[in-house]
């Protein structure tokens, strides 16, 4: 299953919907993570907040390919996209294991194929390096076999890289 998380305007939604099995608009119409860890312990992979991101851990956890489309924010995901990813902490468990000779949380849904980040907006070379490192570390932490980062000069290039 291919899941796309994006912070794009509504005009892109139909194009995105045709390129994936599930899309999640990071539109800010949801609460931020409360840090209660209920999705880890009390109700595994289900957030206690009753909004559109209640099942986000299950959606992301079942994805073979996760594509994140984000505006550059100093070499980091946009705030809206980061909030969606924060709410998905339930994709792992509170228990730890070694992956790649490093300690990580045990995966609730097993391994996945690709973590892809598509970045738009002005991006410096230092920010590109930061994004590549961030995507690679997020992929390892969430059990993805590989990561990829694509930088767009203009959003008109988006359809070709999805």
Any chance you could write out the topology, listing elements then pairs?
Layout: E1 2-6, H1 13-17, E2 22-25, H2 56-61, E3 65-71, H3 79-86, E4 92-99, E5 102-107, E6 112-120, H4 125-141, E7 144-152, H5 158-161
Parallel strand pairs: 1-2, 1-3, 3-6, 6-7
Antiparallel strand pairs: 4-5
Largest sheet: number of strands, sense, barrel closure? 5 strands, parallel
Helix content percent band: 10-25%
Order of helices and strands: EHEHEHEEEHEH
Q: Average pLDDT across residues? A: 94
Q: What is the strand tally?
A: 7
Low-confidence stretches: none
Q: CATH homologous superfamily name?
A: Flavodoxin domain
Structure explained in plain terms:
- The chain is an alpha/beta fold.
- It has a single domain, classed as Flavodoxin domain (Rossmann fold, 3-Layer(aba) Sandwich).
- The chain has five helices and seven strands.
- Helix 4 links the parallel strand 6 and strand 7 (144-152).
- The longest helix is centred in the last third of the chain and has 17 residues, at 125-141.
- The two termini are 14 Å apart.
- The model has no long low-confidence stretch (mean pLDDT 94).
Condensed summary:
This protein has five helices and seven strands, in the order βαβαβαβββαβα. The protein has 162 residues and is of the alpha/beta class.
Characteristics:
162 residues, alpha/beta, Rossmann fold, 5-stranded parallel β-sheet, two-stranded antiparallel sheet, 7 strands
């Amino acid at each position: 299953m291919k899941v796309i998380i994006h912070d794009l305007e509504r005009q892109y939604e139909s194009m995105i919907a045709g390129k994936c099995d599930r899309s999640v608009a990071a539109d800010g119409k949801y609460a931020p993570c409360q840090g209660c860890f209920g999705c880890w312990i009390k109700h595994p992979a289900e957030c206690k907040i009753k909004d559109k991101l209640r099942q986000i851990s299950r959606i992301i956890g079942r994805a073979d390919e996760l594509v994140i489309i984000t505006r550059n924010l100093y070499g980091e995901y946009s705030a809206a996209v980061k909030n969606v990813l924060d709410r998905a902490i339930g994709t792992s468990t509170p228990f730890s294991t070694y992956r790649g000779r490093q300690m990580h949380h045990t995966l609730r849904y097993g391994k996945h194929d690709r973590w892809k980040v598509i970045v738009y907006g002005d991006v410096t070379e230092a920010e590109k390096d930061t994004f590549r490192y961030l995507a690679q570390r997020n992929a390892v932490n969430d059990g993805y076999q590989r990561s990829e980062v694509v930088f767009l000069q203009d959003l008109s290039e988006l359809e070709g890289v999805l």
